[in-house]
Amino acid sequence: MKKLACVLICAALWLTGCGKDDGPMPEDEFLVIAHRGASAYVPENTLASYELAKDLDSDYIELDIHLTKDGELVVMHDQDVESTMNASGKISEFTLDELKKLSKTSRYKDDKGMAAKGHAEMYAVPALREVFDQFGDRMNFIIELKNPEDYPGIEEKLMELLEAADMIGADGDGHPKAVIQSFSEEGLEKIHALNPKIPLLRLISFEDGEEAQLTAEEIEKLQTYAAGIGVSYEALTEPFISYMQQEGLVVYAYTVNDQETALTMKNLGANGIHTDRPDILEK
To answer: Which pLDDT does position 219 carry in this prediction?
Structure first.
């Protein structure tokens, strides 16, 4: 009875135009999502990485956002800067200009011979607004909220920028232009409260060697705000994927970097993969 009530509520919300999203994630396509751009070939989360991801026909570009000391939404993966530049400290301790100067001196390279050609700015830490300025009309994005609990107000800032950049809604093919994902349920629920039309993906981790499984209560909770989930490919099984899809949730596998595993995920029925190598499958 509880599950039936949830389904009826979701159906009513959909019919009134106030459902989970205004451009559902494609259910009949296998999406190749460029993880931090084409990060196997070019420094991750850079304009150069996104340019190459576009050239390799990625369906979506996945990127990660934080807040700088001066309140800019900035694209980096880790909270600490050590992993991608010759410096130490947290992103929140630097201004955007400081991060750009540091990153340009340590990231400007083309080790694989595949990087987009351009000046050092292509390899500097980008603000999210700069990414939209350059790619907003050419690519769609999956934006990960990283540790939103450490950045009060980041959800509101993100919504303001998405609206200003015209990134809410569908592209010409009916695909959502911007999707938001996070391991933080609270962060996603805040986004849903601000604008229920934006598709949301809940990232879920399982213990090593553990197969993915969710309780009925966990699934019902997801159905109130999420369009789908992201799960490590190692935990995914065909029955789990099929059941999630029957419950109205798409399933994406992360992070897949070899062709055999990519084909396995496709054969299992996953809706797509996150990969550092967007050329992993022939289009």
So the answer is: 98
* Cα–Cα distance, 16 to 18 (Å, whole number): 6
CA dihedral 8, 249, 236, 192 (to 10 degrees): -110
Q: How much is the pTM? A: 0.88
DSSP structure string for 170-194: B-TTS-BSEEEEES-HHHHHHHHHH
Residue type, 159: M
Name the catalytic one among 77, 175, 192, 274. 77
Structural domains in the chain plus CATH codes: 2-275 (3.20.20.190)
Q: Residue 86: pLDDT band by 50, 70, 90 thresholds?
A: confident
**H-helix segments, the chain:** 2-15, 47-55, 96-107, 128-135, 154-164, 185-194, 216-223, 238-246, 259-268
Strand partners, 66: 74
In the residue annotation, 77 being an active-site residue is answered as: yes
On average, the pLDDT of the chain sits at 89
Q: Which residues does 253 contact at the CB level (< 8 Å), separation at least 6?
A: 230, 231, 232, 233, 236, 265, 270, 272, 273, 274
The pLDDT tens digits for 214-260 are 999 999 999 999 999 999 999 999 999 999 999 999 999 999 999 99
SS3 (DSSP) at 147: coil
